[in-house]
Amino acid sequence: MDVEKRPPVPAKCGIRYDDYVFEVRDESGSIRVETTGTCRVQGVLEVREGDRVRVEGLFIQPLSDKPGSQPPFIFTKSTAIMRLPQ
Fold it and tell me: Which whole-number Å values give the CA distances from 72 to 32, 37, 66, in the listed order?
C-alpha cells in the first residue's frame, strides 16, 4: 500500500528507472520498502496498490531515542521484489 513511484534519476549506469517506495502489510505488521529500479530499461517491475509481493533484502530497524520504547519503523533496501498471484 501507499505506492510511490519515483521519477527516473541519473546514475553511474545511465538513467535509472522504476524506483519505488511502498508499505508491505501482513498479519504480523508492516514494513516500508524502498526499491532501486533498473538502468536503461523501464517497466521491469511495476508495483501497484494492492499487489501481493515477495520482498528479499536487508531489513533495518533504527534504534529508538527513548529507552524502552518501540522503534518508529522497520524498512528494507530491497534486493529482489516479485509480484505474486492475487
Answer: 11, 26, 11
Q: Residue 11, exposed/middle/buried by CB under 10 A (0-12, 13-18, 19+)?
A: middle
Q: How remote is the C-alpha of 33 from its chain's centroid?
A: 2
Tally the residues of the chain.
86
Sign of the torsion angle spanned by Cα atoms 15, 50, 3, 1: negative
Q: What are the pLDDT digits (tens) for 22-80?
A: 888 888 888 888 887 888 777 777 888 989 988 888 777 777 677 766 655 666 666 67
Is pTM, for the whole model, over 0.85?
no
